[in-house]
Every structure is written in structure tokens, then in C-alpha cells.
Design a protein that fits this description.
Number of strands: 10
Shape: globular
Distance between the termini: 30 Å
Radius of gyration: 29 Å
Helix content: 40-55%
Length: 586
């Protein structure tokens, strides 16, 4: 591998750091924008609340709704419907750094809001990297970092940026739970849900996201858990979320029940924002077309026309994929984005900030659509350190490396089931992987399941008798299948499966063959996209014109280079299997 390609290993990390630094700069610059005039009404109210709060003397007093000096209702603010978690955090930080006065605490709140929103940029990267690829994730992070409305609200001491961070954390842990099914991820989701609702009550729909994750596990996974086990995990996640909310929004409760005053306040704000009351600030929402007004503001002003159009186009594309049966990797962001938009956009009050929780997931769809439309996507199963990624032409393919362990883009086990939906990638590559599986047929079916057009596999070379004998000593039937004696047809039985029309086979001559000036490689035509039907028989790509590396280089480099070159030039000239074998033997 060249030094240039080696340097590209860290490209994503460098870009991500740059995106996060830019996101932080855009959110922190001009933090004193109003010059102590307290022009934002919600921020001014929260500033008044912060300066009224006093720290409780004990844990018991903290949980005493009727007597706690940390309860806004007890210090002159009987109408309070905001989440208390952001209020508590800012009050604690302000006290710690000695900036808790009326003209200081709102600056602390703005800085905290900016920092939390920057964390949200990183979280959408994590979500995109796990669902699709790191390239999709870092582009989604960039789109989120430059979203206008997110930048604006990060300059305000309001609860929205805090809630968004916890919402995205919840989505991330739900995706992890969907992929791995670990109890820890369910519990962390429950904690994130509790913190999100303790920041803003309208985050309650996040609870449905973990149900979507369980839906994928129960109906969309290869290895499906027992429904009783899944139900148990959901119950534990719900318990953790309720406990978290009870601790961080303590004054929503009175004794063992809900606080009647808190419920009354929520009812009052619902009346004011629903148009049922003659409330002057709500007059601006009269005669607005539901959903359409919200959609236009979001696309035109909240995200900007290019990003807004691309985002909703990506959402629509993912919806089509889902309706066609490829739903596992799209279900969570698709339902969250569409459902939340319909819920908040169909109400009487159509404030732009009500849609802030879906801005990052819309940016995710914009990123996914961009890379998918640019060139297609490549899944490298058994990627190891991701060498194939650095050989792909011009960097114009969305690459995702999958392996059992880091540093792969995605973690998964081919024999258990790939953590992707049907037809998630245009091309699936598995170089020297199938020989390590106990059930080569099931593993190959799984590769075909996630591929829309192409599957390329490479297997140990059986050209020499010595190589065949080595593999004959291995008891696994999958390996023995690959070392049948014959003329370049060790996988004849294997290729007779119904999925064979999708497969591409790569085989390389021994690296010590000095007479071979070019690497001999062959790939079967890759599916009906290239006009090859199953009845046409196996075809091979003639690589004589493909300027490949000399045969003396490392075998793994030969195969990786060939696959990258194949992806770059397409299929080129095709010959029959027998002709290619004859050419190899000459």
C-alpha cells in the first residue's frame, strides 16, 4: 500500500475533528449577542427562574415537591412547564464557576446549549456510521453542524439543544440494541429517554424507538431472540427511563403520584398552543396550512433549499426501500423523522423549533442519499483494517467495512447474520471469508441478501496440489468443498445455488509463480444488472487489459487491488469459463 493510501486511513477522523471544531465555533461565536439586554423571552424567563432557585439542604428536601427550594413552583414561578434537567445543570455549573447572577447565568446557559448541540453533531456521526458507513456518518455530522436553525438555537439558553442531545443518544443506543441485543444498550436507552423527557416533555415519542429496534430484532434478524427475552429488555428499559425521569424531573411528582399542579400547567400550555384560547402570541398561527407551512419553513429556512430538498428526497428514497422489503436499516430514522414531523407539524402552533429533533436525522438521510446516488455502496465483509477502502477509485464509493472487532466501520458476524437490511449495498465483497464459516451456503445467502446487484468473493487458491493438500487436512466441510480436484471449478456445487447469478469469484495464481507477469484473476458476471441471466451460464472477466500488479506482490494485495480495479472499470471483456481456464493453463 502506498504512503498516500496509508495516510487516507485517518481521513474520516481528521474530517470529523474539523467538523466538530467548526460546529463548536459556529455555536459559541457571538455568545453575548444581545449585550445583556435579555431579548429572548423564554431565555429571560429561565434566567429569572435560575436566579430564584436555591440548593436544597438534603436529598430528602430535593425530592420534597412541596418544600424544595429547587422547585420553581416554590420560588415564585407557579406556572412552569419546562424540563428541569437543563435548569439544574446550568444552575450547578453557574454556582461552580461563580457566574450565577442575572447577567451571568444566561451566558452559562448559552455556552451549555452550544456544547450540547456540538455533542449532538458527534452523535449523529455515530448513528450514521453504525447504520450505514463512517463516510455517511461524517457527512451527516457536517450537514448537522451547518444547519441554520440548530446553530441559531444553540445561541439561546433554552431546553431544546439539551433535549436534542439526549434524543440522539437514545436513538444511538436503540440502534446498538437492534444490532447487538445487549441488555446494557437497552438500559442506556432508558436513561437517555428519561433525560430527554426531563429536558422537554415533547420528547416522549422517543419511547417508541426502542420498540422499533425490538421489531427489527424479532422480525428482521437472521438470529431472532425469543419474544419473552425481548419483552423483558423493554420492560427494564422502561423502568430505567421512569426512574431517571423521577430523579431529574422530581417536581412532576407529588408523593407516589403525579403532581396536580404540573399536570394543570401542561393542560394550560396545551390550551394556549392549540388555538383553543384567545392568546395574542398565538394569533400568528391562524390560517396556516398544517404540515405544508411547517415543511416550507423547514426546507427553505431551517435547513436551506439544497440541504432540505436532499434530506426529504433521501427520506422518500428510504421509504421506497422500506416498502420494497429492505427496511431493517431505515426503520428507526424513517419512522422517527416522519412520525415526529406529522405529529408536531399538524398542530395549530407551527413554530420552527418544534421540528428541531428531526433536523439531525434529516441530515442523516441527506448524507445517505448523497453517497448512495454518487456511486453506490460497497460492503466489505471481513474487512480487517479496511485495506480495500484505500484502493477504491477516486474515493467515490460509500464504503463500509464489517468485521468481528474494531477498527471496522460496523461490527457483526456473518454466520449469525449481517446487521443490515435486504439489499442495503450495491456491492458486497468477501475476500477470504467464506472458508472460515461452518455453513458456507448460509453465509453466502446472507451476502446475497444484503446486496442489490453484486457479490464478489475470493477464496484460497487451489491451483497447486500442495495447497489442496493443506486444506484437505482441515476437517471443516466448507473448506473441503473448496479444494476439489478439477480445472478451476472447486465451487461447482456451491455455485449451483439459486443465488449464483449474483456471484463474482476471484482467484489468484500463487505469488511465487515467476512466469506469471500479470495476476491471473477472474470474476463471474455480477447479476442481471449486466445482462446475464442464470441460464446464460457462468461468465468471467478477462483481466488481460487491466494493468494489475505483478504476481510477486503479496497475495492479499493482489486480490484487493483486483477487486478495486474491477469496481472501477466495470466488467470489461467477458469470456467463458473454459476459455479463461485454458488461458490460465498456457
Amino acid at each position: 500500500m502506498t504512503q498516500a493510501n496509508s495516510a487516507r486511513r485517518y481521513t474520516i477522523e481528521i474530517i470529523l475533528i474539523g467538523v466538530l471544531l467548526m460546529a463548536a465555533a459556529l455555536r459559541l461565536v457571538g455568545i453575548g449577542w444581545d449585550r445583556q439586554t435579555h431579548m429572548h423571552p423564554d431565555e429571560r424567563f429561565l434566567t429569572m427562574v435560575e436566579t430564584s432557585l436555591q440548593f436544597p439542604e438534603s436529598v430528602g428536601q430535593y425530592f420534597d415537591t412541596a418544600a424544595s427550594p429547587f422547585n420553581p413552583n416554590n420560588v415564585g414561578h407557579t406556572f412552569f412547564v419546562y424540563g428541569t434537567l437543563p435548569i439544574f445543570l446550568v444552575r450547578i455549573i453557574g454556582e461552580w464557576i461563580g457566574q450565577s447572577g442575572y447577567d451571568q447565568i444566561h451566558i452559562v446557559g448559552r455556552a451549555a446549549s452550544a456544547i450540547f448541540d456540538t455533542v449532538s453533531v458527534y452523535l449523529i456521526y455515530l448513528i450514521g456510521a453504525r447504520l450505514y458507513s463512517r463516510r455517511v456518518g461524517v457527512t451527516a455530522a457536517a450537514f448537522t453542524a451547518f444547519s441554520v436553525l440548530l446553530i441559531q438555537h444553540a445561541h439561546f439558553f433554552v431546553v431544546d439543544s439539551f433535549a436534542n442531545t439526549f434524543i440522539l443518544a437514545g436513538i444511538y443506543f436503540a440502534v446498538r440494541a437492534m444490532d447487538q441485543g445487549r441488555l446494557l444498550h437497552y438500559l442506556l436507552f432508558g436513561a437517555a429517554l428519561g433525560m430527554a423527557v426531563a429536558s422537554k416533555i415533547s420528547a416522549v415519542p422517543l419511547a417508541g424507538v426502542i420498540v422499533l429496534a425490538s421489531t427489527v430484532r424479532l422480525w428482521g434478524a437472521v438470529e431472532r431472540p425469543r419474544w419473552t427475552d425481548e419483552l423483558g429488555r423493554l420492560v427494564l428499559a422502561a423502568a430505567v427511563s421512569l426512574l431517571t425521569f423521577r430523579v431529574l424531573q422530581p417536581y412532576a411528582f407529588l408523593g407516589l403520584g403525579l403532581n396536580p399542579l404540573w399536570l394543570e400547567n401542561l393542560g394550560q400550555v396545551n390550551t394556549l398552543t392549540s388555538g383553543a384560547a384567545d392568546f395574542p402570541p398565538a394569533w400568528q398561527w391562524a390560517q396556516r396550512v398544517p404540515l405544508l407551512f411547517t415543511f416550507r419553513n423547514l426546507v427553505s429556512y431551517g435547513m436551506g433549499l439544497p440541504l432540505g430538498i436532499l434530506a426529504w428526497a433521501g427520506w422518500g428514497w428510504a421509504l421506497i426501500r422500506t416498502l420494497r422489503g429492505d427496511w431493517q436499516r431505515y426503520l428507526i430514522p424513517l419512522v422517527w423523522t416522519g412520525g415526529y414531523f406529522l405529529w408536531r407539524g399538524s398542530g395549530f402552533t407551527s413554530a420552527m423549533r418544534y421540528q428541531l429533533p428531526i433536523y439531525p436525522t434529516l441530515a442523516l438521510f441527506a448524507s445517505w442519499a448523497f453517497w448512495e446516488a454518487w456511486e453506490g455502496s460497497v460492503l466489505d465483509v471481513g474487512s480487517r483494517s479496511g485495506n480495500l477502502k484505500y484502493e477504491l477509485p477516486n474515493g467515490n464509493m460509500a464504503y463500509c467495512g464489517l468485521d468481528l472487532y474494531a477498527p471496522a466501520d460496523a461490527i457483526g458476524n456473518l454466520e449469525i447474520g449481517l446487521p443490515f437490511g435486504n439489499k442495503s449495498f450495491k456491492t458486497v465483497v468477501a475476500l477470504d471469508v467464506l472458508e472460515h464459516t461452518d455453513n458456507i451456503y448460509r453465509a453466502f445467502e446472507e451476502l446475497c441478501r444484503v446486496a442489490r446487484a453484486n457479490v464478489i468473493i475470493a477464496l484460497p487458491n487451489a491451483y497447486e496440489v500442495k495447497g489442496r493438500l493443506k486444506f484437505l487436512r482441515v476437517p471443516r466441510p466448507a473448506l473441503r468443498l473448496q479444494v476439489r480436484l478439477g480445472n478451476f471449478r472447486p465451487l461447482g456445487e456451491f455455485l449451483a445455488q439459486p443465488n449464483f447469478g449474483k456471484i463474482g469469484l476471484v482467484a489468484v495464481k500463487p505469488e511465487h509463480d515467476a512466469e506469471c507477469e500479470k495476476v491471473f484473476a477472474a470474476a463471474l458476471l455480477l447479476g442481471a444488472e449486466f445482462g446475464v441471466s442464470q441460464g446464460a451460464g457462468h461468465k468471467l472477466v478477462d483481466v488481460d487489459e487491466m494493468d494489475l500488479v505483478p504476481a510477486h506482490q503479496a497475495l492479499v494485495v493482489q486480490r484487493i487491488t483486483f477487486v478495486a480495479r474491477l469496481l472501477e472499470v466495470g466488467l470489461g471483456k467477458c469470456t467463458d469459463v473454459d476459455d479463461a481456464c485454458a488461458a490460465r493453463d498456457q
